[in-house]
Amino acid sequence: MRSGDVETLMLFADLELSVGDLYRAFSRQFVEEENFWVDLAHEEDQHQQWILALKEGVEEGNVKVDATGIDPEQIRQTIEKLSELKAMAEEGELSLRSALEAALNLETSLIEGKIFNLFLKHSDKGGEVRDELLSATNTHALKVKVRIEEIWGEDAVNPRHRAFLEEQPANGSIVAACGLVCSACRSFLDEKCKGCKENVKATWCKVRECCAYLDYRTCAECVEFTTPRDCGKFNNFFSKLYGFFQNSDRAACILQIRELGVEGHAKKMMKSHKKTIPRH
User: Fold this and answer.
1) H/E/C letters for each residue in 184-229?
2) Residue 91 belongs to what domain range?
3) Which of 74, 112, 134, 151 is most buried, judged by most C-beta within 10 A?
4) 51: closest CA among 63, 37, 61, 39?
5) Is 278 among the domain residues?
6) Does a structural domain hold residue 255?
7) Nearest-5° angle of CA 211, CA 229, CA 244?
8) Are 15 and 149 members of one domain?
9) Does 127 reside within a domain?
10) Residues 157, 38 share a domain
């Protein structure tokens, strides 16, 4: 283990803390969006704790990190820039749009900068934290992007940021058992729903229950039915109600997963900003 690896790890933790502090400053300036910013800040605090929890493991050699190719000075400069933005927010010098654009630029820059490569992908706990941080940062970027679109329309999003996010690998773990793409769902992005996989309280969902029992990722793995439309569990009364009111063709989603795979389906739906294939 090199001393520079631990130093960079601690700088990364400081960076996450600075991001959280910035979002808290935004929550105080833009009170109408307070919950939005406070939720993001709370998650950034959690990210910092994940990183700090690894320090002891790194020092003992049980968790592997590699700071090769990561410039500590660039991290320090980013922290300094965040401090300047925080001061501007506290002085009331930022508009909501400029704050959201700064947040979107920050979150996408973290992904582009490959700072998460500090944690070796195949190093047990370090690899788990790497994947969690990358996924969480991508989700933050999507949340900010969606908020900009809701207020000012799709054309308000920087084309470079839009293109970059569309090219990010889709996270198949947030595709529901029935084929809905949780990461394109407003309830998931607003944290009103944990998503299919994590929503252990969704005992009413027979589709989720069936896939969990058979250890299927989605209904696309089912060999009993050539089409999910023939499955009574998939097409139960509540499913039909959902399909009608949400204009959702979940069977088409499952067939698309069989054609493209879970990741391909998720990526295609994310590009269209839809959680489901609409009914015709």
Assistant:
1) HCHHHHCCCCCCCCCCCCCCCCHHHHHHHHHCCCCHHHCCCCCCHH
2) 3-166
3) 134
4) 63
5) no
6) yes
7) 100
8) yes
9) yes
10) yes
Q: Is residue 37 part of a domain?
A: yes
Same-domain pairing of 36 and 159:
yes
The total number of structural domains that make up the chain: 2
Rg, Å, the chain Cα set? 21
Report the alpha-carbon distance of residue 275 to residue 187 in Å, rounded: 11
- DSSP string covering the chain: --HHHHHHHHHHHHHHHHHHHHHHHHHHH-GGGHHHHHHHHHHHHHHHHHHHHHHHHHHHTSS-B--TT--HHHHHHHHHHHHHHHHHHHTT---HHHHHHHHHHHHHHHHHTTGGGGB-TTSTHHHHHHHHHHHHHHHHHHHHHHHHHHHH-GGGS-HHHHHHHHTSPP-GGGB-TTS-BGGG-HHHHTTS---TTT-TT-TT-HHHHHHHHHT-SSGGG-SS-SSGGG-TTTT-HHHHHHHHHTTB-HHHHHHHHHHHHHHHHHHHHHHTT-SSPBP-
Output the pLDDT for position 120: 56
Other CB atoms closer than 10 Å to residue 29's CB: what's the count?
20
Among 166, 196, 211, the domain-final residue is 166
Crossing angle of helices 125-152 and 96-112, in 10° steps, is 150
pLDDT tens track, the chain, 280 positions = 466 788 888 999 999 999 999 999 999 999 999 999 999 999 999 999 988 888 877 777 777 777 888 888 999 999 999 999 999 999 999 999 999 999 999 999 988 877 777 765 445 666 677 777 887 888 899 889 989 988 999 899 999 998 888 777 655 557 999 999 987 787 887 777 878 877 888 888 899 999 999 999 999 999 999 999 999 999 988 888 888 888 999 999 999 999 999 888 988 887 777 889 998 7
